[in-house]
Amino acid sequence: MMFRRGFILFLPRLVGLLVVACCSMSIVYMLACTPKGDNQQLALPRVHSPTVKEGYEAILQEREERHRNYIISLKKQIAQLKAELQGRTEQLKNMHNQYPDSLDIQLDHSKPEKAQANLLAFLRSQVDKAEVHSGVKLSTEYAAVPFESFTLQKVYQLETGLTRHPEEKPARKDKRDELIEVIELAVGSLNKPDGVSKAKPRVYTASDFVEGIYRTEKNKGTLYELTFKGDAKHQFKKIVLFRPFGPVMKVKKENVNMADTLINVIVPLAKRASKFRQFMQNFREMGIQQDGRIHLTVVYFGKEQMNEVKSILENTSKSANFKNFTFIQLNEEFSRGKGLDVGARFWKGNNVVLFFCDVDIYFTAEFLNSCRLNTQPGKKVFYPVLFSQYNPSIIYGHHDSIPSLEQQLIIKKETGFWRDFGFGMTCQYRSDFINIGGFDLDIKGWGGEDVHLYRKYLHSNLMVIRTPVRGLFHLWHEKQCLDELTPEQYKMCMQSKAMNEASHGQLGMLVFKQEIETHLHRQKLNSKKT
C-alpha cells in the first residue's frame, strides 16, 4: 500500500522529466538540421534574444527568401530551355522548307486508318522518286545504276569481286528468298482475276517465268521487271514490282505483244570476210530460223574483200529464202560510228528497233526478245552488258582439242568476263536515236563513239536499261591497235586487248610457267630419290 502511494506521487515528476527530455531532443535536432547561410548557421533564439516567437519568424522569413530565389532560378532555366527548343523548331522548319519532297509521316496509333494511309502515301512517293516510270538526267556514264538479271536457277551479276562469279546460283539465303518472293508475288498477280474476261483464266506457274532484271537505288528501293510467257507465240506478260524498303508494291501489269516488232541489225564492216561468214552462220540460225522478225543492214567501207562479203550475204539469202537485208557501200576510211549512223538513217519504213552490232558478236534468239522487251520509244533504251570470251588457245591449251564454238559459249569465271566497260552493243528505237542526235561523226577509227552516244542518253529523260545478258557474247579475236589512233583511243584499245586474253589466274600460270616447271622437275627428282 505504501509502495503504491509513493509511485503515484512520483509519477507526475517522471512525466515532467520525460517532457523536458523530449523538448531537449527537439532543440538538439533543430540545431543540427537548420540550413546554413552563406557564412554562418542559423541558430535558434537564445535566452537573451527578444522573444522566442520573433526568432522563429526570422528563421521562417529567411527560408522563404531562399525558396523564392530557388524558384526564380528554375524559371530562368525553363526560359532558356524554351528558347533552345524554339531554335531547334525553327531549324527543323527550315529543313522542311528546303526539302519539300520529304513526306512527314505521322503514325497516330489512335487512328490506325489515318496512319496506314500516311504510310502508303510515303511508300508511293518512293515509287515516284525512283526511276520507275521515267528516266532521270545523270551527269556521267558512271552514275547509271545497272540492273542484274536472273532466271529460276541463276543470277547474272556485274559486281563479282574476287570471290563471286558472273553467273551463279544465289549463295546468300536473303538473296534467294528475295527473288523467290518476287516471282511468287508476280505469279499470284497474274493469276488474280481481272473481273473483265468471262473465259476461264489460264493458271500461271513459276515455270512460265522467262527472265527478270532488278536493281536497287539505295535511298529509294528495289525495282523488279519480270517477264512471263504469254498466251501465244511471241507474246509475253510483264510484271513491274517495286520494294520501297518495305512491302513489295505492284506498279503495273501489262500485255506485251512482240509478234510484229522488227529488229534491224546494223553491222559496220571493213574486210574481215572470214569473220563475216561466221557471223552469218549465227545470224541465219538465231535470227532467221528461230526468231524470224529481223532485218540485216551491212555498211561496208572500201572495196577490198567486198565481193566476197556480198557473195556470203547473197548465198545466205538464197539458201534461207531471206530477203530482209540491205547492203550499203562507202568509199571512205572505216568509222564504226559513221557506219551505224548511216545504216540507221537509211531505214525508210516504220519505227523500228535498232540493234547496233559487230561482226565478232554471237547472239541468241532469247537475246533478241530481251532487246525488244527492254526498249520502248520515248521511254527506254537497252544497253546490255555482254559476256566477253577469253582466248580459247589459253583456256583450252591443256586439252587435246579446242571445243566447238557452241560449247565454248558458257558463262564461267574461267571462260570470260562481263564486258562492263563496253557500250557498243545497244538496242533502241530509231526515233530515239534520231531525236538524240545520232553518233558524233567526227570520231574516226576504233572506240569512243559508243560512249559518246551512251552519255547522250544518260543526259536525257530516257531510262537506260543496263544489265548483263546471258545470250550475247563477244567472240575472242586478236586485237591490233593501229598507230593511227589517238593516244586516248590507243590506250583504250590496249586495255581492251589485255582484258581479252585470259583471267588473272590463267595469265599468272603463263607468267610463272618456268617456275612451275622447275618445281615439278624438283618434285620428280625427289620422288626418284625416295
TrEMBL record:
Enzyme Commission number: 2.4.1.-
Enzyme superclass (EC): transferase
Gene3D superfamilies assigned: Spore Coat Polysaccharide Biosynthesis Protein SpsA, Chain A (3.90.550.10)
Membrane topology type: Single-pass type II membrane protein
Protein name per its UniProtKB record: Hexosyltransferase
Any Pfam family hit: CHGN
Similarity comment text for this entry: Belongs to the chondroitin N-acetylgalactosaminyltransferase family.
Compartments where found: Golgi apparatus, Golgi stack membrane
One annotated Gene Ontology cellular component of this protein: Golgi cisterna membrane
GO MF term list: glucuronosyl-N-acetylgalactosaminyl-proteoglycan 4-beta-N-acetylgalactosaminyltransferase activity; glucuronylgalactosylproteoglycan 4-beta-N-acetylgalactosaminyltransferase activity; metal ion binding
Reaction(s) the record says it catalyses: 3-O-(beta-D-GlcA-(1->3)-beta-D-Gal-(1->3)-beta-D-Gal-(1->4)-beta-D-Xyl)-L-seryl-[protein] + UDP-N-acetyl-alpha-D-galactosamine = 3-O-(beta-D-GalNAc-(1->4)-beta-D-GlcA-(1->3)-beta-D-Gal-(1->3)-beta-D-Gal-(1->4)-beta-D-Xyl)-L-seryl-[protein] + UDP + H(+)
